[in-house]
Amino acid sequence: MKFRVIILLFVCTIFFSHSVMAKPQSTMTELNHLADEALQLTKFGRFEEAKNLLEQFGEIFAKQGPSSNKLTMDELRVVTAVHHEALKALTSVTLSHEDRVKQVTAFRLATDAITSQYQPLWFGMEDTIMDSFQNVKNAALEGDTVLYNEELNDFLTKYAMIQPSLKIDLSVEKVQKVDSKITYIDRYRSSFAEQTWLKELDQIEKELKSLFSGAQKDDTDPSIWWVIMMTGGIIVTTLSYVSWRQYRGEKKFKKSSKKRKI
């Protein structure tokens, strides 16, 4: 009997927690799908349709996104900002097709970062980012200032695509540390000096590698821990109560047995 009670309580707890979390999860899944569709349409040059999807995303996110207990204020700000930039890119008459795709890609990667429970999409860009940065280093080794500036511009463009996602998935301190170094070599590129710059580039390369090595997410949804703890608490309480009842019953039985013998 006691095991039936425990199983019933367990099922009820799971059902309750699922019903509480279903709506936010469903909303985020829908937003993630809209972002993916918008990116695909952008790649095919169907900017007006992509813009409509982004506007739909904005409406849903404004109404339901902030109500999700999974999003922090920093994540809300990042997604809002990257969504605005993507929408602006799609409505721009001066941006090239390639630049529009890059802006919408940054948005797509950010939305995945807030919904992904496993490896985020931006993590798959490690080779692209590291190869691009290696080209910057090669140009520095050659002492070719023109080539160095071209490769640095290419790297900065690619890094900008994953930067919003980094802010969502990694600590502020870690991202700021890399950003400050990248900003430094970008701002003072005119004073390029091969030996000095190579030391800076080597350090940035190490920092970039550390970003990707720290990108592994915890596979367990934090809300699951709440369910486990709640269910565990119910089971422990139930077992304790059943054991106490059994103990009381055995005690009464022993007393009644003694009385009969007397």
From TrEMBL:
It comes from the Bacteria. The keyword Membrane applies. The chain crosses the membrane at residues 224-244. Coiled coil: none annotated. InterPro entries: Spore_YpjB. The keyword Membrane applies. This is Sporulation protein YpjB.
